[in-house]
Amino acid sequence: MLVKLSLPAALLGLALGGSVHAAAPAAPAKPYADVEKAIMPLLGTVPIEKISPSKFGTLLEVVTPRGLVYTDKTGSFVLFDVTAIDTRTQENLTEQRNDELGKFVFADLPLKDAIKTVRGDGSRVIATFEDPNCGYCRKLMGELKKVDNLTVYTFLVPVMAADSASKSTAILCSPDPAKIWVEHMTDNSPLPAPAECATSLERNAALFHKLRLNGTPAILFPSNTKSPGYIPAERIEARLAGAK
């Protein structure tokens, strides 16, 4: 007597000696993919890290390495260089958000990529981001000389002028980068002839954007806080003592 068995197609394949491959799950749709596509032409080569709802009504927050921009849910416009101020507290909401995105741990900074200068016993430490063409960086140099027992790690980031990169390279490739840097920023001493060497400039630029910094000078403190701009010696002393 012949008995007919009904097998599901997958089991039938196994019964016949075949193999079964489960269909790969479909990749989840990227959030706001249509918005990203709409605004990319306006951002040029600047990559979009994340798009998410913002605190500002129907606006979407667009996080990029160069800062925050805002758009609507259809990507029909883009707002650049926005500074949002809370009308009740007068707090800078844009700065707060950038601080959230640019959180860092001072101990994790790649200090090997920075120029190291030491005053006194060097027991207190800060890190700075500076450009050889930055006037306020020169002013900061004068203030730092007033702070005793200080080690300064300076990350050069050529963001100010067309020749900032060549000047930075000349400093970093010199036999004594710390000496050349201090003399140039203090007395405008001429830089040595440009030399070819492997530098940290690209890594410094990536770190600069990761920390959501948008200008020089910028100062980072061991308390994992930062000052996005020039501040005088007394304020540096206060920050090193733990005050904000």
Keywords:
single chain, 244 residues, alpha+beta, 31% helix, globular, disordered N terminus
Entry summary:
This protein is α+β, with helices and mostly antiparallel strands. It has helices spanning about 10-15, 35-45, 95-100, 135-145, 165-170, 175-185, 200-210, 235-240, and strands at about 50-55, 60-65, 65-70, 80, 115-120, 125-130, 150-155, 220, 225.
How would you portray this structure in words?
This protein has 244 residues and is an alpha+beta fold. The protein contains eight helices and nine strands. It has helices at residues 9-15, 33-43, 93-101, 135-144, 164-172, 177-187, 201-210, 233-240, and strands at residues 50-53, 60-64, 67-71, 78-79, 115-119, 124-130, 150-156, 218-221, 225-227. The chain has a five-stranded mixed sheet. It is globular, with a radius of gyration of 27 Å. It starts with 8 loop residues before the first helix and ends with a helix.
Query: Radius of gyration over alpha carbons?
Result: 27 Å
Identify the overall geometry. globular
Largest beta sheet, briefly?
A: 5 strands, mixed
Number of strands: 9
Low-confidence stretches: 1-20
Distance between the termini: 92 Å
List the helices and strands and how they pair.
Elements: H1 9-15, H2 33-43, E1 50-53, E2 60-64, E3 67-71, E4 78-79, H3 93-101, E5 115-119, E6 124-130, H4 135-144, E7 150-156, H5 164-172, H6 177-187, H7 201-210, E8 218-221, E9 225-227, H8 233-240
Parallel strand pairs: 6-7
Antiparallel strand pairs: 1-2, 2-3, 3-4, 5-7, 6-8, 8-9
